[in-house]
Structures are given as structure tokens and as C-alpha cells.
């Protein structure tokens, strides 16, 4: 049985007023972190910055993103045993995020919303709350 490669992704954690920014996309009810797959030749920070621009219209400098942690869990919507490795970067900006063509809506999330998140997002919410960054 062949092992499927892990999904390597990067995401941003933009926190304001003790809530973290998450998004929903095309007809899907789950909340997820702004982010996506890391392209060949791209660093995780570069991927996080590119995805932030594509999904929530934020211009971020990869050099200014601080890596918080990596979440490794079962990938949402993938066969059992396929893992996602999501590297999460703290984003700092005063710019106002808005939903791009890839995203339907933005949500400012606390632990009360964790049930709306797939496993990786729920783990991020739990870790941010444990570190005292969000409620």
C-alpha cells in the first residue's frame, strides 16, 4: 500500500481583538485559515504571504512573518491517513482584509467557533487560545 505524501501548507494567523481571522469558501460551511499549498521553490513564509494576498487581499512581507508552530493532523476531505502539515505564521498588519475571488466570507473566530473548523483549524484555534492570544 503506497503512502500518500503529506499535504504541505502554510497559513497566516491574523489576530485582532482576541479573535483570529478565518475564511469560508464556495458553498462550504467550514472555517479555515487563510493559506494553502506550498509551491515548489517557495518557502513556507512566501506561500503564507502569497495565499494571504490571494484569499484576503493582504500584502505581507514573508520576512516579517513569525512562525508560531506546525500543526500535523488528518487532512480534511482526504482519505484516512493522509496528513496535512500546516505551518502557521503570525501576521501583523493594520490593513483591512477582505474576501477575494477565492473566498466567500471572512470570520473573526474564538474557541466558541472551533466546532466549525476542520481538524487543522480547530488545532490552531486551540493552540492560539492556550498561548493566550485568542479567547
Fold topology:
Layout: E1 7-16, E2 19-24, E3 35-37, H1 44-56, E4 66-74, E5 83-91, E6 105-109, H2 119-130
Parallel strand pairs: 1-5
Antiparallel strand pairs: 1-2, 1-3, 2-6, 4-5
Describe the structure.
By secondary structure, this protein is of the alpha+beta class. Helices cover 19% and strands 31% of the residues. The protein has 2 helices and 6 strands; from the N terminus they run βββαβββα. It has helices at 44-56, 119-130, and strands spanning 7-16, 19-24, 35-37, 66-74, 83-91, 105-109. Strands 1, 2, 3, 4, 5 and 6 form a 6-stranded mixed beta sheet that branches. The longest helix has 13 residues, at 44-56. It is globular. The model has no long low-confidence stretch (mean pLDDT 95).
Number of helices: 2
Query: How would the global form be characterised?
Result: globular
- Average pLDDT confidence is 95
Structural class by sheet pairing and helices: alpha+beta
C-alpha end-to-end distance: 43 Å
Stretches where pLDDT is under 50 for at least 5 consecutive residues are: none
**Over the alpha carbons, how many angstroms does the gyration radius reach?**
14 Å
Number of strands: 6
| Element string (H = helix, E = strand) | EEEHEEEH
Largest sheet: 6 strands, mixed
Helix proportion of residues, in percent?
Answer: 10-25%
The multimeric state of the shown protein is: single chain
Classify the beta-strand content into a percent band. Answer: 25-35%
Amino acid at each position: 500500500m503506497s503512502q500518500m505524501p503529506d499535504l504541505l501548507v502554510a497559513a497566516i494567523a491574523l489576530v485582532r481583538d482576541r479573535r483570529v481571522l478565518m475564511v469560508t469558501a464556495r458553498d462550504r460551511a467550514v472555517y479555515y485559515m487563510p493559506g494553502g499549498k506550498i509551491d515548489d521553490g517557495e518557502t513556507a513564509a512566501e506561500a503564507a504571504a502569497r495565499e494571504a494576498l490571494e484569499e484576503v487581499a493582504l500584502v505581507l512581507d514573508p520576512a516579517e512573518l513569525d512562525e508560531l508552530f506546525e500543526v500535523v493532523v488528518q487532512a480534511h476531505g482526504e482519505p484516512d491517513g493522509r496528513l496535512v502539515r500546516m505551518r502557521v505564521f503570525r501576521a501583523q498588519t493594520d490593513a483591512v482584509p477582505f474576501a477575494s475571488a477565492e473566498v466567500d466570507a471572512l470570520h473573526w473566530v474564538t474557541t466558541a467557533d472551533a466546532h466549525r473548523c476542520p481538524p487543522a483549524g480547530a488545532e490552531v484555534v486551540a493552540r492560539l487560545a492556550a498561548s493566550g492570544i485568542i479567547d
